[in-house]
Specification:
The complex is a heterodimer of chains A (about 120) and B (about 110). Chain A has about 120 residues and is mainly beta. Chain A is built from no helices and eleven strands. In chain A, strand 4 and strand 5 form a beta hairpin. Chain B is mainly beta. Chain B contains no helices and nine strands. Chain B has strands spanning about 10, 20-25, 35-40, 45-50, 65-70, 70-75, 85-95, 100, 105-110. In chain B, the strands form two sheets. In chain B, strands 1, 3, 4, 7, 8 and 9 form a six-stranded mixed β-sheet that branches. In chain B, strands 2-6-5 form a three-stranded antiparallel β-sheet, with no helix packed on it. In chain B, a hairpin with a 6-residue loop joins strand 3 and strand 4 (about 45-50). The chains are: A mainly beta (about 120), B mainly beta (about 110).
């Protein structure tokens, strides 16, 4: 059973960079095509941030594209999110997710990690 | 990309059927059969209930069903139960190789 686990700082200062990692266990990260990041501000709906293919190619949400970088480390079976120039509007629960058994959907999710942007 | 439009709330009595709509455009919902529905309970990650418009993953109750007509997708919950009370979100693949989520619907079991 594949499991996803997010990790990273829970507090980031304004104008700083938010960095999170998603560790994949119970399966190989190379066994699934696409790996995504999704965030959910408190009391609001989810927002797709972007995805990375096992080959390293990426797709990003146009509204965040200028600030987002997603990378993959196959040797560590994990992928990462960097979001630069953060503001309070970036405060959210951040999830990693993937369509492991089916494409174009998200059937596996991490438990989520709350990141607060505040000085 | 704008969020897909869902009603803010839907309610029903136990045993009844309810339907949640999800309206997008021809660039997302109407253009692809890649609409998914997620159930989310407070403090939990979303759980996939329907994908590919109408495919129900293993383990999901057959009381949940999905459909699509034009730019609007729908999730129907039949035989409503207390445990179905949650937030529900639709999502769709889009023409620019991204995903967009719906605004969310709170389901209340009366």
């Amino acid at each position: 059973q594949v499991q996803l686990q997010e990790s990273g700082p829970g507090l980031v200062k304004p104008s700083g960079t938010l960095s999170l990692t998603c560790a994949v266990s119970g399966g190989s990260i190379s066994g699934t095509n696409w790996w995504s990041w999704v965030r959910q501000p408190p009391g609001k709906g989810p927002e797709w941030i972007g995805e990375i293919h096992r080959s390293g190619s990426t797709n990003y949400n146009p509204s965040l594209k200028s600030r987002v970088t997603i990378s993959i480390d196959k040797s560590k079976n994990q992928f990462s999110l960097n979001l630069s120039s953060v503001t309070a509007a970036d405060t959210a629960v951040y999830y990693c997710a993937s369509g492991i058994t089916r494409g174009w959907t998200f059937d596996y999710w991490g438990q989520g990690t709350l990141v607060i942007v505040s000085s | 990309q704008s969020a897909l439009t869902q009603p803010a709330s839907v309610s029903g009595s136990p045993g009844q059927s309810i339907t949640i709509s999800c309206t997008g455009t021809s660039s997302d919902v109407g253009g692809y059969n890649y609409v998914s529905w997620y159930q989310q309970n407070p403090g939990k990650a979303p759980k996939l209930m329907i994908c590919g418009v109408s495919y129900r993953p293993s383990g999901v109750s057959n009381r949940f069903s999905g459909s699509k007509s034009g730019n609007t997708a729908s999730l129907t919950i039949s035989g409503l139960q207390a445990e179905d009370e949650a937030d529900y979100y639709c999502s769709s693949y889009t023409s620019i190789n991204t995903y967009v989520f719906g605004s969310g619907t709170k389901v209340t079991v009366l």
